Please model this.
Amino acid sequence: MITYWLLAFMTLFTSLTAEIIEWQRDNGSLMQGYLTVQTTENEKFPILLMIQGSQKESVLALHTSVNNHLANSPIAILSFEKRGYDLDGNLNNKLYDKCDYFDNRIKDGQLAIDQIKKGAIPNWNGQIFLGGASEGGAVAARLAAKNPDLDGVMLFCTGGGLPFKEEILMTVRKWEKNAGKKDKEIKFKLGLIQAQILVMQAHPSTKLNFGGYTYKWWSSHLGRRTLDDIVQINSPLYYVHGTEDELLPIESADLVAKVMQNRPGFVYKRYEGVRHAIDNLIYPAWDEGINWIKEHIKY
Model:
């Protein structure tokens, strides 16, 4: 019962409430997650719905980390496990691989938004903010494009200015160049990657794996460009990227900023020397992001 122990620990040492949320999907399965409320009883609050990245792990670590930056604020945080993880931190690997692809993540995020809007969480003040990092940022961008009435969106290390496939090729090119490889060797490696991409797109199997992800997962992402969703976002947008991101190139983020620079409500934070890992973005990006949300809360 690891998860319940952690929730009890959070409640004991932070004086916060933490409760389990379960909502039913269309197929009858339960979407399970965590709600942490900062306010006192019967005090209304906005909700920050956090979308996890591509990590194959419980969302509780992200939930707890972001929650630490919400102390003394009126913001509640809500997050959900991916399909395949239960509330005790147990992983059904077969189910996870079968269900882990972009459209399913959008469906879960939309279910959460719909349930919030229906009043499933008492004392909600009517405001929803979205937050996501990496793949979670891409999911959040799509959800924000589909839900123009959201109150704000935070995207961390999401990239998206280039198509995902081009981001991969640019990243591999940088890796190889930094490793001292010659142009001929780099060209050969990129050719192998492009061939692998074609195979995964042609055969989106949940049973075949490349780089730690199923062909189905890759196929669901290779045809998208997050900028196509970002330009449709009507909500205020807080967009963060590190210049040394080793997975999603800064050039892709800069392209988003160039397209969005004159859009009202768009804020671009470009952190020098910061890599992709969310842990490296905790300070000061998360605190600044939470302060940005506070500026948009309706009291």
